[in-house]
């Protein structure tokens, strides 16, 4: 069931329940007030009847004429009965006599409102010089029933007219209220896996729908980012695995053409082992970036400066024009700070990627590496004078396969820095990255 329909039904149900309760209250109050009004009129009729028949000998002519006039105007012929002490009707219409027990009750209470068959009745005990009488005034219930039936007809008609009106009105209101939802749904329907960069227009409602749309837009952004990462991941895996696998296959095909000497077998096995190690290193890299390897490798203690020199030696072989200066600003009495305890393989990979990036993007300019003490902890900074990272893209540098717009045709897959930062976070090494376009980048690490 649509929200619009549900809202309309809900409004109609609420209206029906509220109207029914109000109608019952109106009906009950009207019935009680009308009944009281009837008994009040009957009481007046009873006293006028008593005055007319029993006080004529005690009133002067003018006073009696007033009573007589009121009697003729207000009292119908069958609207009263006056009972003597022996319970016989002294005055008034005969028939439909009141039961003796009720008459006795009236004499005891002196006035009583009651109903008999189709009549509302009001009785009074009236003492006169002629004797004691019971005067009973009557009015048919049909008079009240006609008014009640009229009220029921009005309430019933009002209920159905109001219900019809509330259904139409609620449908109209729900249509207006649902319009922003319809717009969002229509936009969502137009989203496809080939076009995840779109964003849903935020409604101007300033309510939960706006918050929901904003949250959905964030989700779209994350899904789009995930698709890009998956696409680049496949490209990276294909590229990195293709070379060693092709080399292994080529060596085996060439080697299988003819018989080889033991020395040649040994040489081939060594080459294959190196290429398998290369594949294993790539696989470890993929495991780290995907966070599949939750447990850390064997933790060991090492000197940071030794690790830096080892990395510089490897980078020098790969980048012959590299210029790396190392400044160790640690006093002899603080030399114990140089030792760090962590996963050597992961730290080596992280620092190698950071230093390699600095060398690669410096384009032959000097890279400064400084080891220092800060607030009693070991610090390391890697500063290059390269192309820098645009300020508006700094928040994306930790994302796998992300490359800044100014990286141009420089070799890389955008994975090295993300791996390095992921390793630093995993090993609880604090880092800070500062960068300016065409002025370079500085990466600062603090070892806890």
Q: SSE layout and pairings?
A:
Blueprint: H1 3-54, H2 61-74, E1 80-83, E2 89-92, H3 100-109, E3 111-116, E4 119-128, E5 131-140, H4 141-189, H5 208-255, H6 262-289, E6 299-303, H7 304-318, E7 323-329, E8 339-343, H8 344-362, E9 366-374, E10 377-383, H9 416-426, E11 430-436, E12 440-447
Parallel strand pairs: 7-9
Antiparallel strand pairs: 1-2, 1-5, 3-4, 4-5, 6-8, 9-10, 10-12, 11-12
Helix pairs in contact: 1-2, 1-4, 5-6, 7-8, 8-9
Roughly how many Å apart are the termini?
Answer: 59 Å
Secondary structure tally, helices: 9
**CATH level-1 class of the largest domain:** Alpha Beta
Structural class: alpha+beta
Largest beta-sheet details: 5 strands, antiparallel
Structure description:
Helix content is 55%, strand content 18%. It is an alpha+beta fold. Strands 2-1-5-4-3 form a 5-stranded antiparallel β-sheet. The chain has a 5-stranded mixed β-sheet with strand order 7-9-10-12-11. Strands 6-8 form a two-stranded antiparallel ribbon. The two termini are 59 Å apart. The mean pLDDT is 79.
